[in-house]
Specification:
Layout: H1 6-36, H2 51-64, H3 70-96, E1 109-110, E2 114-115, H4 116-143, H5 146-168
Antiparallel strand pairs: 1-2
């Protein structure tokens, strides 16, 4: 496959971020439904995305992209995601003066901030992102209308940043 140009790489970055963030939001909603039997927007934004999953997916991919063995990729993703989630829980609590999640009552939880079960799910999602979603998205972007993909990506970024600003302003 040929190398992507700058606009295509930008499109891959943003579209991959949106895919992971939306997938994370879906995972969160499923968890809430299974545990509490109701729908509750688990994201910190008004949009149906959880940005932490976008950042986490890309972070894991950038750290582990040279690893071809899916089992090893999974294991390292579980370990890194656990450390990442624990750190993020403290950072978000410090920045926003509230807790965005808890694993209270979950088996194998640590300080109710992380859980082995969720970490294993994050590892699985990471493998799906790196081995299935990104290659397919990369292929579509490389073969598609470069200008259209760029406009879609730029628009998505603008909407996400706008939503983030609204949340920071308390609206």
């Amino acid at each position: 496959m040929h190398e992507l140009n700058l606009r295509q790489r930008f499109s891959l970055l943003i579209c991959g971020f949106v895919a992971a963030a939306f997938g994370g939001w879906i995972y969160e909603e499923i968890c809430v439904w299974l545990i509490y039997h109701h729908i509750y927007n688990r994201g910190m934004l008004h949009l149906t995305i959880c940005p932490i999953y976008g950042f986490g997916a890309w972070g894991l991919y950038l750290l582990l992209r040279r690893i071809k063995n899916s089992g090893l990729y999974f294991l390292l993703s579980v370990i890194i995601a656990s450390v990442f989630e624990l750190g993020c829980s403290y950072l978000l609590e410090y920045l926003f003066h509230r807790s965005f999640w808890t694993y209270e009552g979950w088996p194998f939880s640590v300080q109710n901030r992380i859980s082995l079960i969720s970490s294993m799910i994050f590892g699985l999602l990471s493998v799906v992102f790196a081995k299935l979603i990104l290659p397919r998205l990369r292929s579509r972007i490389s073969k598609g209308n470069q200008h259209l993909w760029f406009i879609i990506s730029l628009s998505a970024l603008a909407v996400i940043l706008g939503d983030f600003i609204l949340v920071l302003r308390g609206k």
